[in-house]
Amino acid sequence: MMKKVLLYTLLFFSALVLFFPLLYAVSASFMQPQDIYAGNLLPSSLSSINFDAYRDVFNRIPLFHYLTVSFTMSSIVMIGQLIVCSLSAYAFAFIPFKGRDLIFFIFLATMLIPWEATVIPNFLTILNLEWLNTYQGLTFPFFALPFGIFLLRQHFLTIPKELWESAQMDGCSRFRYYLRFVLPLSKTSLSALGIYGFLTTWNQYLWPLLVTNEDSVRPVQIGLKMLIANESSSSWNMVMAAVVAILIPTLLILFVGLKYIREGLTAGALKG
Amino acid sequence: MKRGSQVVTKPNKTAHHREKKLFGTGILYLLPALILLGVFLFYPIFRTLYFSFFELSGGGVVEGFIGWAHYADLIQSSEFRKSMVATLLFVLYTVPAEIIIALFLALLANEKLRGIGFFRTIFASTLGVSIAAGASIFLFLFHPSLGVLNNMLEVFGINGVDWLTNSRWALVSVAITTVWMHLGINFIILLGGLQNISRELYESADIDGAGYWSKLFKITIPLLSPVLFFVLIIAVIGSFQTFGQIDLLTGGGPAGATNIIVYSIYQEAFSYGNFGYASAQAIILFLIILIVTIFQFKYGEKKVHYQ
User: Buried-most residue among A94, B31, B56, B282 (CB within 10 A)?
Assistant: First the structure.
């Protein structure tokens, strides 16, 4: 009994400390400026709660447009990664061709290359292709994710070989086997990679900062940077309203997909 | 595989033909990844190496070979030395804290209690917080006069700290932000690892009358070591690659105190147009990560206990 009380105390305390920044952001977004200046943790009274910051921020900057851009960008990368990585993982797991192990090793070794070490030539490539301020420029470089290929291959290897043999006897082609058997049997890993790819793309910062300078394809992260540069001296409730607005989609995806991420990512980490 | 089972007696030519066809099929499936990795990873890493030996104009046009001059400049530059020190301190501030706190949370969340799912979700939540959003919140928390942190300190009669503008505190402040943002992913991976440890081991330890701490150090930590090792590698690499929080919180300042290596590369290349000099720094970043990873695999691996 004592142990339970102690555990719950620790759990509540940790959750409070960890969640405090997010709770405070929500609280500050509903405050009047004078409450913010007073350093209050909550709006001073029920009647002082106001939604003006949300109205103002959507009027002042094209926040809804930034959200659409981020959503489009992240969805494109997610779909691109799922296609490119699953095709490669399929080759590595099911097609016993010569030189396969060597190519797989080279793919694995690329995980050692920090993406930031390649950012200068990549920027010049996008510049020369005239892909600045385009979705191609924002998304194409991230489709082939070595970590994703590795994660899916690990899962594909658990599918029994006998399944392919019997499918082959029924006249099933390789590609049909990939579409009809391998992909449906790997829903958890595919979901894990999909959610992971979506969230990491949504969170990207350096790359969009480099390859976009127009509102037309500016994702929320960079929109937020601009908002802070312009408004942080005066309207913190507005900045926090923007933060809350851009947090809601990813937090929702995380809460819904947490199970998949945990199962999928840990499977990759443990069986590696 | 079934390959060749009916064609054993046929001449070698057919087998060779089959090999070739199989190779073609394999490469066909790999083709999209090969092209993309080629264009956006292999080519650029060699290109970065090449750039590091050349003088480049602001538009990225190669102007002349200068050999090791960029590297020689880096070694002599007090700014770069300062940046390396900041980078190493940053890794030291963030990695141990990240792993220890995440392990503490994972151990708590691994208990079988009513409502534990709620706590797990909260502990994992920072994975859904983008760098820009998280950094914006901390920018506000660290605010010298409006920030909650200083207001709380005042309650205890402590004078406000210049979190982001004091060169002694700025790196710590960025580290606090980073630890908070990385807790989610580390927590998820460690919790997954804990849940894979078989319950029977604890049951037999219970019969032997083992206490909480002895179970923790004799069963949990050794069996969790491969996962801890994995988390350690991604935490170190993640720290070396920090960019967004720095850009939003301090812009590398004050006086270069938070100008850690990726930020320095960005500044040199995209603010000052020194593509060659920045490429030399990028190669150093690549080498550091390579060495750290190889070192960890070589020496860390031996201490890791696989089930």
Answer: B282
